[in-house]
Amino acid sequence: MSGNVEKRCLLCEELISAETDSREHLIPNSIGGRKKVSGFLCVPCNSKSGDSWDSALAHQMNPLSLFFRINRERGDAPSQKFKTTSGRELVLNADGSMDLPKPVFKEQQNDTRVEIKISARDMTEAKKMLRGVARKYPRLNVDELLEETKMQSTYSQEPIHFNLSFGGLDAGRSFVKTALALLSTIGVSARDCEHAIQFLKEEESEPCFGYYYEKDLVGGRPAGTPVHCVHVNGDPDSKLIRGYVEYFGVMRVVMCLSSNYSGNAFSATYAIDPTKGEELNLSVGLDLDLVDIRKAYNYEKWDGKAVQQAMGAVIGPTLEKQHKEERGRVLDEAVRYAFSNCGSKEGEVIAEEQHNRLMGLLREKLEPWVLNQIISMRKHD
Ligand SMILES: [Zn+2]
């Protein structure tokens, strides 16, 4: 839109100048959003809503952001601690790697000796811990120990439990703000969306969003890909401006932004693949009436089975892809390790003894490789 039209911040109504214009992310950056909207929120309202609404959403979505290894424009999804089925704690990082949550130090005094077990997150940490031990036991040869210390990757030998919970009004306001941001990009005044504005601005107002799983409203979904999708449409016959926001193909929300619309019919959709940051061409068939949308507000369109299905459709293929990549990486590393330690030189014919050693080394490296993640999900009130 032309630059000389006066723009006011949707939330505080202040005039937006070049200095106070925020380039608000249409979909929050924290979950992989790319597109930005100008003339929508002022800088203070952008950061205020980011710190409350968007961060509540980001927090709820973080297990999925980590699991899908989303591609963020700014920074990585924060690492998060998870428990395995037996209660062991692991930290999952944005690149899919896992760490121990903190260094483990165990000291056991027997009659004749002291046994010390150390698990460190890297060599620097291991050295520091060993030096600490050396101060206590001066007879210990730290350098010798360090030479024997090997870096070992952490593989999870058992399933990791993700507890995904979502809901709450703050996250709800983030969805509604995102739908309004899309409206503003097609020149429809978000200010006319009375339900949305009231919900965003008044603490005690009726929420105008709800989870919807009665049918899949999205057309052209790429198989196995978690999508972020935002859609708005206006319909003068029913007087509705409807909104739809879907994150990771799993979280699906419908909203009624206005029930008093009299302008021209319109429809707009914006969708991305958050693992690559690429735009997708999807269609959304959102023609629900007000009664149905309101039912969603009361969790009447929530369906645990459909949620599981939506998750399975993206999580299964992603796990498979990650398994394949991980298998390739681990195998390469194991082969390199085995060849450089089996005692044969490059180009030489491998003798049987070396062959056996080679196989042993390969097994040693490959055995701990198990990657298994289970995502369980809990509805949060
Ligand atoms: Zn403002």
Would you kindly provide a written description of the structure presented here, covering whatever features stand out?
It is a single chain. The chain has 381 residues and is α+β, with helices and mostly antiparallel strands. The protein has three domains: 24-69 and 167-302, no CATH class; 101-153, no CATH class; 312-379, no CATH class. 35% of the residues lie in helices and 22% in strands. A hairpin with a 4-residue loop joins strand 6 and strand 7. Helix 7 (304-341) runs antiparallel to helix 8. The longest helix has 38 residues, at 304-341. Residues 151-157 and 370-381 have low confidence and may be disordered. It binds zinc ion (ZN). Residues 9, 11-12, 14, 41-42, 44-45 line the site of zinc ion (ZN).
Which stretches are low in confidence, meaning pLDDT under 50 for 5 or more residues running?
151-157, 370-381
Q: Tell me the radius of gyration.
A: 27 Å
Give average pLDDT, whole number: 81
Instruction: Going across the biggest sheet, name each strand in turn.
Output: 9-13-12-11-14-15
Strand content: 15-25%
* N-to-C span: 41 Å
Order of helices and strands: EEHEEEEEHHEHHEEEEEEEEHHHE
Small molecules bound: zinc ion
How would a textbook summarize the main sheet?
6 strands, antiparallel
Detail the topology: elements first, then pairings.
Layout: E1 24-25, E2 36-37, H1 43-67, E3 80-84, E4 89-92, E5 98-99, E6 104-109, E7 114-119, H2 123-136, H3 142-148, E8 160-166, H4 169-185, H5 194-201, E9 209-211, E10 218-219, E11 228-235, E12 240-247, E13 251-258, E14 266-273, E15 278-280, E16 283-284, H6 290-297, H7 304-341, H8 352-366, E17 373-379
Parallel strand pairs: 8-17
Antiparallel strand pairs: 1-2, 3-4, 3-8, 4-5, 6-7, 9-13, 10-16, 11-12, 11-14, 12-13, 14-15
Helix pairs in contact: 1-4, 7-8
The chain binds zinc ion.
